[in-house]
Amino acid sequence: MAPPRAPARPGVAGVAASEIPPSTPRAGTTPGVLVLVLALLLGIQPVTTDLYLPALPALTAGFGARIAHAQLTLTALLLAFGVSQLVLGPLSDRFGRRPVLLVGLSAYVLAAAGTALASSIEGLIALRALQGAAMGAAVMAARAIVRDLYQPAEGARVMSRALTGLGVIACLCAPVGSVVTDGLGWRFALAVPALFGVATLALVALRFRESLPRPDANALRPSAIVRTWGTVLRHPTFLTFSALTTAAYGLLFTFLASSSFVFLQVLGLSRTGYGLVMLWNSLAYIAGTFLCRYWLARHGVRGSVARG
C-alpha cells in the first residue's frame, strides 16, 4: 500500500495526485520502507557530527594540530551543509529527489573514506566540508520527500516517526565512536560514516522510488530561484521557525564542538564515559520525539512548537 499523498501539490508541480499517470514511480515505496529511508537520511547527520567526537582529541594529537583547527572540522562541515541546500533544493526540484540523493550519497561515501586517509588537518577540513555538502543532499531530500507525499499534519507525524529513528541512531553514535577509537584508532572512527553511507545508498538505490510528481523545468532559472528566495525570506512563518531552529542548533553544535575536549581532557572522563554522557542526551531527544507526536495529535504543528 503506497503512503498517503496530498490531493494537490501547489508550487513546484502544481498537479493533483489523481492527475499523475498510474505508471508514476512515486507509488512504489511502501510506508515502512519510506520511514526507514527517512530515518537513515536524517540519521546521517549525527553519524557525521557525533560519531567522531570521542576521537577528536586523539585526532588533534595525531595531526599535531591546535584545538581550534580540529574544531574547524565540524565548523566547515556545518557551513557547507547549510549552504549546499540552497543549490541542492532547486536541483532536486528540476531533476527529482532520487538522482540528487544517489549523487549526493555517492559523494558522501567518497568524502568520508577520504577523511580516514587525510594526511593533514587542512586536508581533513576540506574533506569534511565536502562531506557536509553531500550530507545536505540527504537531509534536504528527506524533508522534500515528506512534502511531496503528505499533507502538513500527516507529514509531521511521519517525520516524527523518522526522527525517532534518528534518535536511536544518535544514541549509538558516541558510544560506537568511543569503542572504535579505543579499539582501532581515530582513523577508523572517521571511516565508519562511509559504511553508513554505503548502506543508505544501497537502500535508496534498491527500494526508494521517485517522490516528486513532475520535475520543474524552471527550477534552475536564476530569476525563479531569486523570486523563490525572496518569497521565503519575507514569510513570517519561515522567519519565526528559522530563528528557533538557528538558536537550537547553534547551542547544540557549540556544545558538540567543545564537549569532547572538556569531558575527556579537562574533566578526565574516559571515552566510554563520554559516550554514555552523549547517550543520555540522545535518549532525551528520543523522549522529545514521542512527546512531539503526542502534542501534534492534540495541538497541531504550531501548538506543539509553542509548547516546545
TrEMBL record:
The keyword Membrane belongs to this UniProt entry's keyword annotation: yes
Residues annotated as domain Major facilitator superfamily (MFS) profile: 34-308
GO cellular component term, pick one: plasma membrane
Membrane association type: Multi-pass membrane protein
Compositionally biased spans, kind Low complexity: 8-17
SUPFAM superfamilies assigned to the protein according to its UniProt record, in alphabetical order: MFS general substrate transporter (SSF103473)
Entry keyword annotation includes Cytoplasm: no
Keywords: Membrane, Transmembrane, Transmembrane helix, Transport
BP GO annotations: xenobiotic detoxification by transmembrane export across the plasma membrane
Protein name as it appears in the record: Bcr/CflA family drug resistance efflux transporter
Transmembrane portions of the chain: 33-55, 67-88, 100-119, 125-146, 158-180, 186-206, 237-257, 277-296
PANTHER family given in the database record: MAJOR FACILITATOR SUPERFAMILY, POLYAMINE TRANSPORTER 2-RELATED
Coiled-coil regions, chain positions: none
Source species: Variovorax paradoxus
Localization per Swiss-Prot or TrEMBL: Membrane
Single Gene Ontology MF annotation: transmembrane transporter activity
Renumbered residue ranges of the record's region Disordered: 1-24
